[in-house]
Design a protein that fits this description.
Elements: H1 3-14, H2 26-38, H3 45-53, H4 62-84, H5 105-118, H6 121-126, H7 129-143, H8 150-157, H9 159-167, H10 169-181
Length: 195
Amino acid sequence: MSFAEQLSRLQAFLDADDLHEEALDYVAAHGYLTALCICPEQVPEREWIDALFAEPPHYRSDIERESIEASLQLLKGHIARQLASDDDPEIPCDLDLGDEPDDSDLRGWCIGFMEGVFLREAVWFEDSEDEVSELLLPIMVASGLFDEQPEFAEIARDHQLVDSMVDQIPEVLTALFLLCQAPEEKPALLKPRHH
C-alpha cells in the first residue's frame, strides 16, 4: 500500500464518528504529531498513541490496529523529515481561521499541536522559555484554548494581527524544530546579539 493510500485510510479512521469524543481527528492528529516531532524529549510511542485516541478505539481486528498505528508512525516520520528539510512544513489545511474559527481545520490542527505540547509541557520550556513561548504564540492564539486569558482575548479581537500570526505558523514550526532539536543551528532570528 502506498503512503498516500495509508494516509487516506488513516484519515478515514480518525475522522469516523465512532471514536471517543476527545480523540483527535486527522487534522488535529497531524498537529499533535508535529508537536511530538519537535519536542526535545522522545515521548514513548505507546503513550502518545493512547493519548491521541483518549481511549482504545474499537478496532475490527489486530491487523487494523497494527495498520493504523503503523500509519501514525509513518506520518510522524514524514512530518519529522519535512521539519528537518529546508522547505516550509506542510499543514493539511488552509492557514486561515475563516469566519467561524471554532469550525476551522486550522483551529483543530493547532489544538492537536498544543495537546502534543501538553504531553511534555515542562520539557518544552526548560531550555529557552522566552523563545519557545514567543514562537508558540501564533499556534496558541489560533488554537483558541487560551481565549479566556485577557492578553489572548485582546489579540483574538484584532483580526489582522491574528491573520498575520497564522501566516507565520510554517516558519514558526521550522524555528521551533531547530531550537528544540538542533539548538546549535539556531535560526538567525534567535541568535543572541553580540554587542
